[in-house]
Write a structure and sequence with these properties.
It is globular and about 35 Å long. 27% of the residues are buried. The chain is mainly beta. The strands form three sheets. Strands 1-4-7-10 form a four-stranded parallel sheet, with no helix packed on it. A three-stranded parallel sheet has the order 2-5-8, with no helix packed on it. Strands 3-6-9 form a three-stranded parallel sheet, with no helix packed on it. It has one domain. The protein is built from two helices and ten strands. The longest helix is centred in the first third of the chain and has 6 residues. The chain is 8% helix and 27% strand. It comes from Solanum pinnatisectum. This is Disease resistance protein At4g27190-like leucine-rich repeats domain-containing protein. InterPro entries: At4g27190-like_LRR, LRR_dom_sf, Plant_NBS-LRR. Keywords: Plant defense.
């Protein structure tokens, strides 16, 4: 979807995207440069990205991006995903409480956290 649609989804509180073998990004590249901080899905509380083998990033932007109410994030089996926002300066998540069901993780910048061992990009072999 486009950034304009994402910003317009004012009441969306949960996104779950799974089992899409061809998806490379969730939000398409932004159409214009404008405000310094971009807020997508202003009320989003939960985001789950699972079984997306070609997903490289959630969004392509050169601006600071914030998800002010995002509390829970789950990213599993997305082996190509190295950053949450491609080319982004940072991703602000001030309300984040849980990453992959670990409530001890406090992540402020998701782009930096993508390399944290607690952010599981692939399921662990059992």
């Amino acid at each position: 979807m486009s950034p304009t649609v994402a910003r317009g989804a004012l009441n969306l509180r949960r996104i779950r995207i799974y089992n899409c073998v061809s998806m490379e990004e969730v939000i398409t590249e932004e159409e214009q440069q404008g405000e310094e901080i971009m807020t997508l899905f202003p009320l989003l509380e939960e985001l789950e990205l699972e079984e997306l083998p070609k997903l490289r990033h959630f969004f392509l932007t050169k601006r600071v991006t914030e998800f002010p109410f995002l509390r829970e994030l789950k990213i599993c089996d997305c082996p190509e995903m190295k950053t949450f926002v491609q080319q982004g300066i940072s991703v602000s998540t001030p309300s984040l409480e849980s990453v992959n069901n670990d409530d001890e993780v406090k992540v402020v910048d998701l782009n930096k956290a993508m390399f944290n061992s607690k952010v599981c990009l692939m399921p662990l072999a059992v």
